Amino acid sequence: MISRRPITLSAGRCRLFSSSARARYDYRKPQAAQVQGRSILRVQGKDAAKFLKGLTCKDVDGLPGGGYSGFINPTGRVMHDVFIFHQPATDTYWIDHSADASASTDSTPNTKALYEEIKRYVLRSKVKLKYATEEYDVWSVYGTPANDSAVAKRWWKFGSGGAAEPQWEFQEEAWKEIQRGLREGEVGCWDLRGGWGQEGMGRRLLVKKGETPLFGSDHDIGNSNDYNLRRMLLGVPEGPAEIIPGSALPLESCMDVTNGVDFRKGCYVGQELTVRTYHTGNTRKRIAAIRFLPSSSTCESSALPPNGPLKWSDFQNQKPVPEAGQPISYLPPPTSASQKPKSAVKVLSVHPEFAVGLGMIRLELADRVWGTSAFGEAPKMLGKDGELGKLVVAGDASADWQVWAGRGRAWYEPNEDVQQSAAKQQM
């Protein structure tokens, strides 16, 4: 439930009166947070690796401890985004997935939704499926000072349809480092969705039920709001509220950028449409990091990346907080021949304390207002009197909130895309 705390607006400018409002988020603050609303499915048996490779869109065996992946239906739509953990030298895998309420008739989370979907594929495979949710909690540990000997290198491959696929190379120490601080029976992997290093998403761990991680015992203990704030600022979607089961496409859900889909992997359910989109499609929408700003103002740069984020309490006057599911519209500038609003898609999630969230955004319209080519850099400011147009929550000029939309820090730098394009032209 989204809280409706008082928010402030001014008539002319976005009045930012708190000194804390101008401070940048500290990505390097070491923190450990339990990830709520997760279920753990154990897949065990001599055919476990083969079984999962035929169902998931990312083979995690080449990643230290496992990693991010997903289950896609035959029409190429995402059913579950997951983490798959693998204990070395065993035939056991653990799948960390959302306890999905969408598969339930009474809004009670159906913690066995994934099990019910994949058990039909077992057939003669030598595998056993069993839930281990009562044995483990899911933790995210991030902001840990870098171990200089555990290094990973990332470069990118770009598809003609707008896909951006990270390629990773790990030094041997990175494989050893992920095992450090785990109790017997616990597993962990690098969470590469936000890139590598202290400013990313850190590690994803399965920790004994009721325990806190031994690794990161000197970190601050955070909560779900802390974890979700970091995700949102990094532009990392997660779970059925943001990656809508049976509707979301992998590329629109940024599963390419967050290292959750492999376009060169062997056959798996949903592969055909996913690979075809990579080579010949055109991704017009993406889940993007968003920030909410008063609609009637030209806001100061302290409200926008790399500054902030602002809290709802940093604004003046009282307006209701935007809610997930509300539409986002593009309002043309006053000089435009047509003043008809255009759909820029919708809000997917809103942080209860900070004026940030995630939204499905039409890239062309975000570029028109903010400049998507500058994602990850200081955005261009909204022009005087909305001369570039506005993205707003709702559908007309009476909207309370305008929206900044941009890439999260997980994305490649704009110059990397330019360099790749130049290399292709020289071939």
UniProtKB/TrEMBL annotation:
Example of a GO cellular component annotation carried by this entry: mitochondrial matrix
Q: Does the keyword Mitochondrion apply?
A: yes
Q: Where in the cell is it found?
A: Mitochondrion
Q: Which GO terms describe its biological process?
A: iron-sulfur cluster assembly
State the family named in the UniProt similarity comment for this chain: Belongs to the GcvT family. CAF17/IBA57 subfamily.
Q: Report the PANTHER family cross-referenced here.
A: TRANSFERASE CAF17, MITOCHONDRIAL-RELATED
What name does this protein carry? Aminomethyltransferase folate-binding domain-containing protein
* Species in which this protein is naturally found: Naganishia liquefaciens
